[in-house]
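Re: that backbone. Tokens:
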């Protein structure tokens, strides 16, 4: 039996400026906070929507990801900016009776269930249209941007592997192919051959006039 290799497509990566515009254009505070988690902690969309209020640890600055891919628990990073956004959403959601103690961090229309991945996907598409971003982007694209931007900041790829919850390093290595800042910092061997640009070709001499 012959196995045909499936082409591996590179993900579309938003720039940090585009990510900022996208999150700012979120339709409401709940979706803004959820999108901030996807980008700020690098979580999969299934992990974002499944977060509970109790998964936020403001003292240790971590997010508990329960039963992520491969049915494994892990801890994700929680930055000060992300913590503030989650607190802002919690205060509003709790005041509205949507976010309950020990309940879902991002509840759906029925507070007993969490928001669906499809609903978050629609929110991202709406935000992209509002922000004027014509790249094809999904909530998972924010996770791709998280990994790529960390790599461009020279964070060790093995650290990124742990943050993403990847089992294999070669899965994480995909982001080296889309980290454009890394490409720009590499000096081409052509540039090593000379300290100045190649000289322009000398002009052709004018034809001599015949003697009178």
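Recovered sequence:
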């Amino acid at each position: 039996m012959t196995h045909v290799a499936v082409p591996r497509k590179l993900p579309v990566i938003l720039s940090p400026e585009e990510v900022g515009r996208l999150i700012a254009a979120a339709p409401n505070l709940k979706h803004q906070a959820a999108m901030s988690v996807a980008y700020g902690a690098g979580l999969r969309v299934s992990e974002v929507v499944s977060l509970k209020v109790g998964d936020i640890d403001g003292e240790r600055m971590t997010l508990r990801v329960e039963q992520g891919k491969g049915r494994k628990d892990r801890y994700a990073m929680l930055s000060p900016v992300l913590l503030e956004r989650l607190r802002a959403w919690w205060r509003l959601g709790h005041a509205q009776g949507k976010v309950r103690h020990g309940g879902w961090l991002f509840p759906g229309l029925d507070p007993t269930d969490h928001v669906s991945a499809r609903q978050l996907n629609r929110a991202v598409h709406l935000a992209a249209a509002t922000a004027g971003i014509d790249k094809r982007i999904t909530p998972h694209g924010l996770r791709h941007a998280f990994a790529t931007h960390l790599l461009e900041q020279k964070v060790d790829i093995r650290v990124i592997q742990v943050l993403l919850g990847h089992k294999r390093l070669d899965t994480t290595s995909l982001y080296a192919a889309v980290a454009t800042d890394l490409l720009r910092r590499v000096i081409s061997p052509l540039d090593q051959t000379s300290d100045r640009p190649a000289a322009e070709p000398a002009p052709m001499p004018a034809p001599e006039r015949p003697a009178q």
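Residues 16-180 form a domain with the hpI Integrase; Chain A fold (CATH 1.10.443.10). The radius of gyration is 25 Å.
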